[in-house]
Hints:
Blueprint: E1 5-16, E2 19-31, E3 36-40, H1 47-54, E4 62-67, E5 70-71, H2 77-87, E6 88-92, H3 103-113, H4 118-131, H5 147-159, E7 165-169, H6 177-194, E8 197-201, H7 205-209, E9 213-218, E10 221-224
Parallel strand pairs: 3-8, 3-9, 6-7, 7-8
Antiparallel strand pairs: 1-2, 1-4, 4-5, 9-10
Helix pairs in contact: 3-4, 3-5, 4-5, 5-6
Residues 14, 16, 21, 23, 41, 43-49 line the site of adenosine-5'-diphosphate.
Amino acid sequence: MTDLLRLTNVKRGFSLEGQRIEVLRGIDFAMAAGEMVALTGASGAGKSTLLHLMGSLDQPESGSLLFEGQELMGLSNADLAAHRNRHLGFIFQFHHLITELTAVENVALPARVAGIDAAVAGERAAELLDWVGLGARLRHRPSELSGGEQQRVALARGLVMEPRLVLADEPTGNLDEENAGAIHDLFASLNQDRGVGMIVATHSSSLARRMQRRVHLDRGLLVDLDAKPETEDQSS
Ligand SMILES: Nc1ncnc2c1ncn2[C@@H]1O[C@H](COP(=O)(O)OP(=O)(O)O)[C@@H](O)[C@H]1O
Ligand SMILES: [Mg+2]
């Protein structure tokens, strides 16, 4: 079966004021459709950099990045934007909701950008807001919602295009335990009920424990924390 996502020897560094830092020094990673993966690593290890590459928001300097078997390296910016809109959902620590728009308008926005009819997009958005427990907050603007509610709106927005893969960057980093728990529950049911693949960069060990798989960034390389040692001696 084709992997949902496969990275091979992906490298990305930055040059700043004549100083060069190699952040990702050769990342190899593959995940199947519907897998749920926690990405951990110290602050500054390169988690956000890696998620940006996985989400085609930034391009590797070298290596290969396949989505459902298709090479993304070398695609035009327009093709990458279409790919992101059609297949990916993003959830960041700071929700980046548009302050002038209501909850339902914020959630519907990616669908409207994709050319989906306003009524259809609005209906889909309302359903998702209901699913995240905000069915009674459709017309509220971000400033009229709590931090936890705003993050649930952002989660709904990340799902409105029915993505195959959701990339979340410390999605509960600025929430208290109770609100974080509500988001963690939604992630679990998202994965179980809808089969959406997820990669979640997180400092939260309780969130990481709920994931099927944990990978850890250390000195520019990705370590599979759940890898079983190869056993060739066992009869299969
Ligand atoms: N656009 C950039 N220009 C220069 N350096 C960057 C840029 N983006 C990230 N970095 C550097 O890359 C390293 C990894 O950053 P980041 O991916 O944000 O780590 P994490 O998300 O794990 O905390 C940091 O040292 C950071 O300063
Ligand atoms: Mg980060």
